[in-house]
Automatic annotation (TrEMBL):
Residue ranges annotated for the Talin IBS2B domain, each copy included: 101-262, 518-602
Main location as per UniProt: cytoplasm
Organism: Pavo cristatus (Indian peafowl)
GO cellular component: cytoplasm; focal adhesion; plasma membrane
Name of the protein: Talin 2
UniProt lineage: Eukaryota, Metazoa, Chordata, Craniata, Vertebrata
Domain Talin R4: 13-97
PANTHER family: TALIN, TALIN-2
Domain Vinculin-binding site-containing: 880-1004
InterPro entries: Alpha-catenin/vinculin-like_sf (IPR036723), I/LWEQ_dom_sf (IPR035964), Talin1/2-RS (IPR037438), Talin_IBS2B (IPR054082), Talin_R4 (IPR049108), TLN1-like_RS (IPR054060), Vinculin-bd_dom (IPR015009)
């Protein structure tokens, strides 16, 4: 509760900071209604207020269940509802106003910047007259920090402005111009405050002048950006834009340099640069000192420089004057150290040794400059992400560079240099443990544990080696052991500091920061690692192949992480300019890395050849205490005792036969060992979330026992009724707490699987809701008269508590360890059970509330769903726009149907409106979730914005309708409320149509497929009804028609359907317009085909129902195949050729061809009686041929000639020739089938094995000529003659068997 209170206070302060701007915008717009700047100021202040206002609403709703004062809780809940409703209306109104005034934002921003310039000029005049005074609350330190932090915001917004203008995006250029103007306004206020607070008039004038220069340059930049929009591809315009931006950046740096202390740091940096020029000479002067003197001076200068580096780090935490003094001293010590290093380089015996010394000195110079730059950056903006860690890393880099030079140049007794280097390294890493409130590395808590275990093992072995080799006098191995111990101690310190940070942020009393679009710490850390690796690659001393490969691996690892971060950020943002910028940055990093790796492969031993790749790579990357105390104390003790141990070991290396020193060494070793054991124990005991899980489990167990006691009392009908509160208030409390519990399910599951730092926060928050849950549930049950409803509420509450208990056990087992994969299934299962329990109790509560007209919970649910539309989307959406579009259409239509039912029930059964309102609420919740994903995946972005806006408008309509339903339930006879409900229902229906039109605009083809599939489903249902009538023997033709009258229409329509099928299959790879046309045409054609087939079936008469059913089933199969084909086409639209949906499309196309072919065969099989008889004769040819073999061939030939000559007389009107439309339809069908197959192959880009071409109708007699037809008739006559000459009935029956088989082969 205390954490919620503190968090709410922070939110209140944030909201309070925005309220004056909102009020000022309202007043300005009212006073100057026609002023564009005033209107835009109101729009901007409104949009800026939405985010903090929404967060405060969420915080208030989360706090309501924890407020024990009923009156205060109800008031807080009502205020949260009112604010949520107002924010939803403000969001809609500001979006509409922004659409109308958005294009004029650039002009408004330009006017704002020019006004700021004039104000700074007035401030300069006041300063000259000595009249410039600080405003209330302004101090020098506060204004200096504001100016430093705002300067970065100005630079960022200007970079976005350049990108947007270069891409020609007018909308986002206006947004960037507005943000730039807002940042410049803060900068101008801070600059004025600094000038008014300083006592130096010269500094004040310089600050105001530099700030005015920034405003002047910014105005020019915005003007150039406006002109660049008119010609996005104009090279001259882009060049001018870049030049102006460079000038503004220079002015901005000058403004920051006017801050107190900054000039001193600049002077120190300049001094280091001037001193480093001594290293650029080709020939160094010979040394005038002995080697011992030069070595001694170098050691002393190294110690002084290392100490000065620590003082610079410490000075950044104090006043600006301290940093000025520390940076000056550091500059002086660096100059002395550089002179000592050059003196030592003169002592080198060979040119190669001298080059190595100079190279190390250059590294120290670069590290020293980076240290001062990091200190300067931290002093300007102390709250910058990772600034403290970057400063500490820069100090460590100085120490490491010094150690490398000392190791190279000095000649001491073996082991002494290693001890000195180790002591310097340990002194540097101590700062990590001072205030671990920022991450030190990317390690997770469990990685920290593994790191501590590994480094402690290495430290133990090295400590044993130090002691053993000091005794034996093997000082070379002794030095190696000291180096290993130093690295292990640094690793232990880093892991301990990171673990302490993670423990700190996981404590429930800690307030976690808000995650941004990208992690600047990750980018800064990757940038630093890449730069260090690149320095190693270009270092001429790095000639070992292993080192080169190691550095290249580091570069590849971090650039890969940066590219992935850019990809995730691109998917999160809705800003198309930012999307393209992230993608372009990732491409630049990837290409530069690829060039680097390629060069390394070719020139693995020539580091200087890599310079070209590095020059491209680095700019691309640049774009781109209570719970902690045990860990910190153990780590500090470990470092102190280790330093003493190394100092003692250093003495023993010189004099190994000193017994008291050995005793001291043993004592230090024992202390180090104990401190490491304490560190490991502390890290394990402080595992994030474990203690909170235990507390939460105990609390929920108590709540379960309370519910059980209440259930027993309810069974015995002795449950005491609460008289201090109404049942409506109890239902509202219960609904609120159940909703808050439901919101925590996914965050807890996510934390349990891989975010240990968040586990404690989430489980503590979850457990805090169960005591209010029990109180509200028992209260509702006590006021419920129906015993069954009592037990339902109590049982469902108990089920929810038990599922939460299971969730906590699974979460504790998982512990936030991503490597504990064996626990993840249990976590997922527990989360699902908990969601089902929440859904069950919410259904019960909504039904109970709706029965008495309480719709507040439903309105809250709809409002919350609307607010989530503005949230960011997951980095990797699981579906495509088509998937989300289909779901949105389904829920939109469900809402429209519910609205129509509510219109009807408002007149007939008003008591049923509550259930319908609850159903509409649930449907809109799903619709909003899927609509957010559809808007995020829609292209272009304007369509996504339109979808989101119209879904929000539909939400407003649903709210009004639900409210009217509740009002009508309270007073069912109120005719005025009925009329209002009907109007609201009609408005919901209209807004549903707007949502559907927005979806259709986003993807016409897929929308047409959805509509076509729905139409085909209706046809299938109609055919099922027709089959039912045919089976009952009641399907008859209206007129005296024959099947032959419909056969030609059937064939023509089937041909048209085949053509539509070809277009539909090819439409998957075509434009959305073509796909839409094909889907609509196929739906129309299948409708026509179904109608003509039904007419043909009816013409057969009810005497032959089996044939009717066979024919209708054939067209039903075609309709089903078309429905599947439409679905497959919709799923395959805009998909790559190797997508699995393409295989489904090919299969559906084949089924479609097969079913159309089967339909044509069936049509032939059910033609009128005369035609079927003629075809039956032809089917018996093979059997009769066997009889002909025993006859006189000459006689048969003569008879055949007679029959051929008489063919025109006996063929009749029922005879079929090759010009018959059936034959033509068969030929065209074969061609269409081949076309469909080719389209499917083209889409899949597959090459199936070749198959032999076989005629679809190999035995079809339609392909014979007239002579064959005459011969068939002759054989038929012969068959009749044989039959008349005494073939008995048994023989005739035996002949009919192959006749039926032949008919089956031919027609079916």
């Amino acid at each position: 509760i205390r954490v919620l209170y503190l968090f709410s206070l922070c939110l209140l302060q944030n909201v309070a900071d925005h309220i004056p701007q909102l009020v000022q915008g309202v007043r300005g717009s009212q006073a100057q209604a026609e002023d564009l700047s005033a209107q835009l100021a109101l729009i901007n202040s409104s949009q800026n207020f939405l985010q903090p206002g929404s967060k405060m609403v969420a915080s208030a709703k989360a706090a309501v269940p924890t407020v024990t004062d009923q009156a205060a809780a109800m008031q807080l809940s009502q205020c949260a509802k009112n604010l949520a409703t107002s924010l939803a209306e403000l969001r809609t109104a500001s979006q509409k106003a922004h659409e109308a005034c958005g294009p004029m934002e650039i002009d408004s921003a330009l006017n704002t910047v020019q006004t700021l310039k004039s104000e700074l000029q007035d401030a300069k005049m006041a300063a000259v007259d000595g009249q410039l005074k600080p405003l209330p609350g302004e101090t020098l330190e506060k204004c200096a920090q504001d100016l430093g932090s705002t300067s970065k915001a100005v630079g960022s917004s200007m970079a976005q402005l350049l990108t947007c203008a270069a891409q020609g995006n007018e909308h986002y250029t206006g947004v960037a111009a507005r943000e730039t103007a807002q940042a410049l306004k803060t900068l101008a206020q801070a600059a004025r405050g600094v000038a008014a607070s300083t006592t130096d008039p010269v500094a004040a004038h310089a600050m105001l002048d530099s700030a005015r220069d920034v405003m002047e340059g910014s105005a020019m930049l915005i003007q150039e950006a406006k002109q660049a929009l008119a010609a996005p591809g104009d090279a001259d315009s882009q060049q001018r834009l870049a030049q102006v931006a460079k000038a503004v950046s220079h002015s901005l740096n000058n403004c920051v340099n006017c801050l107190p202390g900054q000039k001193d740091v600049d002077v120190a940096l300049k001094s280091i640069g001037e001193s480093s020029k001594k290293l650029l000479v080709d020939l160094l002067p010979p040394s005038s000192k002995s080697f011992q003197e030069a070595q001694s001076e170098l050691n002393q200068a190294a110690a002084d420089l290392n100490q000065s580096a620590g003082e610079v780090v410490h000075a950044t935490r104090g006043q600006s004057g301290e940093l000025a003094a520390a940076s000056g001293k550091f500059s002086d010590d660096f100059d002395e150290f550089l002179d000592a290093g050059i003196e030592m380089a003169g002592q080198a015996q060979t040119k190669e040794d001298q080059i190595q010394v100079i190279g190390n000195l250059k590294s120290i110079s670069m590290a020293s400059s980076k240290l001062l730059l990091a200190a300067k950056s931290l002093s300007v903006d102390p709250g910058a992400p990772n600034a403290k860690n970057l400063l500490a890393a820069a100090a460590r880099a100085v120490t490491e560079s010094i150690n490398q030079l000392i190791t190279l140049c000095t000649q001491q007794a073996p082991g002494q240099k290693e001890c000195d280097n180790a002591l310097r390294e340990l002194e540097t890493v101590k700062g990590m443990l001072d205030n671990p409130n920022e991450p030190v590395s990317d390690l997770s808590y469990f990685d920290c544990i593994e790191g501590v275990m590994e480094n402690s093992k290495a430290l133990g072995e090295s400590m044993a080696g130090i002691s053993q080799n000091a005794k034996t006098g093997d000082l070379l191995v002794f030095g190696e052991c000291v180096g290993v111990a130093s690295k292990a101690l640094c690793g232990l310190t880093e892991a301990a500091a990171q673990a302490a940070y993670l423990v700190g942020i996981s404590d429930p009393n800690s307030q976690a920061g808000q995650q941004g679009l990208v992690d600047p710490i990750q980018f800064a850390r990757a940038n630093q690692a890449i730069q260090m690796a690149c320095q190693n690659l270009v270092d001429p001393t790095v000639i070992v192949r292993l080192y080169v490969l190691s550095a290249a691996t580091i570069v590849a690892k971090h650039t890969s992480a940066l590219c992935n971060a850019c990809r995730i950020a691109s998917s999160k943002t809705a800003n198309p300019v930012a999307k393209r910028h992230f993608v372009q940055s990732a491409k630049e990093v990837a290409n530069s890395t690829a060039n680097l790796v390629k060069t390394i492969k070719v020139q693995i031993l020539r580091g200087h050849v890599l310079l070209l790749s590095l020059q491209l790579l680095l700019p691309a990357v640049g774009n781109l205490r209570t719970t902690q105390e045990p860990i910190l104390v153990s780590a500090k003790t470990m470092l102190e005792s280790s330093s003493l141990l190394i100092k003692t070991a250093r003495s023993l290396a010189i004099n190994p036969k000193d017994p008291p020193t050995w005793s001291v060494l043993a004592g230090h070793s024992h202390t180090v060992s104990d401190s490491i054991k304490s560190l490991i124990t502390s890290i394990r005991d402080k595992a994030p979330g474990q203690r909170e899980c235990d507390y939460s489990i105990d609390g929920i167990n108590r709540c379960i026992r309370d519910i059980e006691q209440a259930s027993l009392a309810a069974v015995s009908q002795s449950l005491a009724t609460r008289d201090d509160i109404s049942v409506e208030a109890l239902q509202e409390q219960l609904t609120s707490v159940v909703q808050e519990i439901g919101h925590l399910i996914d965050p807890i599951a996510t934390a349990a699987r891989g975010e240990a730092a968040q586990l404690g926060h989430k489980v503590t928050q979850l457990a805090s809701y169960f005591e209010p849950l029990v109180l509200a549930a028992v209260g509702v049950a006590s006021k419920t008269l129906d015993h069954q409803q009592q037990m339902t509420v109590l049982d469902q509450s108990k089920t929810l508590a038990e599922s939460a208990l299971q969730m906590l056990y699974a979460a504790k087992e998982g512990g936030g360890n991503p490597k504990a994969s064996h626990t993840h299934d249990a976590i997922t299962e527990a989360a699902q059970l908990m969601k089902e329990a929440v859904d069950d109790i919410m259904v019960t509560l909504n039904e109970a509330a709706s029965e008495v007209g309480m719709v507040g919970g439903m309105v809250d649910s709809i409002t919350e769903a609307m607010s989530k539309l503005d949230e960011s989307t997951p980095a990797d959406p699981k579906g495509t726009f088509v998937d989300y579009q289909t779901t949105v259409v389904k829920y939109s239509k469900a809402i429209a149907i519910t609205a129509q039912e509510m219109m009807t029930k408002s007149v007939t059964n008003p008591e049923e409106l509550g259930g319908l309102a609850s159903q509409m609420t649930n449907d809109y919740g799903h619709l909003a979730l899927q609509g957010r994903m559809a808007a995020a995946t829609a292209e272009p972005e304007e369509i996504g914005f339109q979808i989101k806006t119209r879904v929000q408008e539909l939400g407003h309509g649903c709210i009004f309708l639900v409210q009217k339903a509740g009002a009508l339930q309270i007073c069912p006879t109120d005719s005025y409320t009925k009329r209002e409900l009907i109007e609201c229902a009609r408005a919901v229906t209209e807004k549903v149509s707007l949502v559907l039109s927005a979806l259709q605009a986003g993807n016409k083809g897929t929308q047409a497929c959805i509509t076509a599939a729905s139409a085909v489903s209706g046809i299938i249902a109609d055919l099922d009804t027709t089959i039912m009538f045919a089976t009952a023997g009641t399907l008859n033709a209206e007129n005296n028609e024959s099947f032959a009258d419909h056969r030609e229409n059937i064939l023509k329509t089937a041909k048209a359907l085949v053509e539509d099928t070809k277009l539909l299959v090819s439409g998957a790879a075509s434009s959305q317009d073509k796909l839409a046309q094909a889907a609509q045409s196929s739906a129309n054609t299948i409708t026509q085909l179904a109608e003509v087939v039904k007419l043909g079936a009816a013409s057969l008469g009810s005497d032959d129902p089996e044939t009717q059913v066979v024919l209708i089933n054939a067209i039903k199969d075609v309709a089903k195949a078309l429905s599947d084909l439409i679905g497959a086409t919709k799923g395959a639209a805009s998909k790559p050729a190797d997508d699995p949906s393409m295989y489904q499309l090919k299969g559906a196309a084949k089924v479609m061809v097969t079913n159309v072919t089967s339909l044509l065969k069936t049509v032939k099989a059910v033609e009128d009686e005369a035609t079927r008889g003629t075809r039956a004769l032809e089917a018996t040819i093979e059997y009769i041929k066997q009889e002909l073999t025993v006859k006189n061939k000459i006689t048969l030939h003569s008879m055949a000639l007679k029959l051929l000559s008489s063919f025109p007389l006996i063929s009749g009107t029922e005879w079929v020739d090759p010009e018959d439309p059936t034959v033509i339809a068969e030929t065209e069908l074969l061609g269409a089938a081949a076309s469909i197959e080719a389209a499917a192959k083209k889409l899949e880009q597959l090459k199936p094995r070749a198959k032999p071409k076989v005629s679809v109708y190999p035995n079809c007699f339609f392909e014979s000529n007239k002579a064959d037809d005459a011969y068939s008739l002759y054989v038929g006559l012969l068959f009749v003659t044989v039959h008349d000459n005494g073939i008995n009935n048994q023989k005739s029956a035996s002949v009919s068997v192959p006749l039926g088989a032949a008919l089956g082969r031919t027609y079916l």
